[in-house]
Amino acid sequence: MSPRRSSTSSSSSSSSSDDERDHHQKYRRMINCNPGPAAQPREILEQAHRELFDYQNTGISVMEMSHRSAEFENIIKTAEQLLREIVNIPDNYRVLFMHGGGTAQFSAIPLNLCNKFKEQLVNYACTGVWSEKAAKEAEKYCIVHRVLPPKKLDGTLETIPDYSDWNINPEGTYLYYTDNETLTGLEYPIQIQAPISNPKMIVAVDMTSNFLTRKFDVSNYGVVIAAAQKNIGIAGVGVVIVREDLLGSPMPICPLTMDYTLWNKNKSLYNTPSCYPIYMCMLYLQWIKKKGGLEEMERRARKRSELIYSIIDQSNGFFYNPIDPKCRSRINITFRIGGGSKGDDALEKLFIDECKNRNIIGVKGHRLVGGIRISMFNAMRVKDAEIIADLMRKFLKKHGQ
């Protein structure tokens, strides 16, 4: 009996090329603008496809691999090492791979950063639906102080007030914000530093939807959270980067699966982790490194968004974007068609249908705001954004006169 052939063997390069050609011919790929789970780079899907039945000559899939095995230990270690290298994470920060995605972290952050139930005050900068959800969850455990006025999803111009206008309570244990609001397409133009009013205040940030799309200084934060399914993998795992001095004193009511200290002590292996999503994270991080790291991801994000916003800005209001230009998201671009802030439902439905005819999916806006949303995460090629821009240009010419 001939031995199994490793999917990573150099001797199989010609066969792998044949497999890839067959894969391209067999599977039709859409331009995926879904807001999450999001598109995956084709190269990653092809590698996962090759390794699905037999991961590196083990004779089993990662899906059925013991999380205590040497093979999986290597996967999770490699994922962490790649993330540390790509982001330049300081040695005094810990990387955790946790269950529950980003929403679980809405609870985990107050449960780990505060140790007195319903006694400690925390600051929340609510700029949209996701930061507001996080604030409401934190209210179960803390006294939440909102530093910004309430948001209205009414199509009027949205912006982020200057930092000097934020009403931050200096007694707060931490300040929390969401770096990119996917629903409306609002993104912080710069990273926030620790509050001047209290240099010791912890800053916690949800970077789920723009994680690894630009450089950032980890040392500005106490905690960085990011669910994997938008920019670094598939649904099922959340990445947490936490400063080590913040470990050790969670609330007594903190569940085991949300305890940063316990997770760090057990190297994210306290119980069975989300093995396959962590494997996909590893592949995605390898891909980011191969393509040029955060500098290249940032260049692509900027180029993709410029292609779409240029059409919007030259449409004389036919495509209406409700976001202050300085706060426009590079990742999630929202707009109404043909009717200002309210849009024209018939034209928007026609646009969605024409997108489908061009193999572009996932462009319908969130049910709370309607309209159109073009989500362009790390996996989207600039070429795909050019195709979308071309469709918009032709749609404008046909219906915008």
Automatic annotation (TrEMBL):
Q: Which Pfam families match?
A: Aminotran_5
Gene3D superfamilies per the record? Aspartate Aminotransferase, domain 1, Type I PLP-dependent aspartate aminotransferase-like (Major domain)
| Swiss-Prot/TrEMBL cofactor(s) | pyridoxal 5'-phosphate
Enumerate the UniProt keywords alphabetically. Answer: Amino-acid biosynthesis, Aminotransferase, Pyridoxal phosphate, Serine biosynthesis, Transferase
Q: Hey, which pathway is this one from?
A: Amino-acid biosynthesis; L-serine biosynthesis; L-serine from 3-phospho-D-glycerate: step 2/3
GO MF annotation, one: O-phospho-L-serine:2-oxoglutarate aminotransferase activity
Disordered: where is this region?
A: 1-24
Q: Does the keyword Transferase apply?
A: yes
Name the protein family. Answer: Belongs to the class-V pyridoxal-phosphate-dependent aminotransferase family. SerC subfamily.
Which protein are we looking at?
A: phosphoserine transaminase
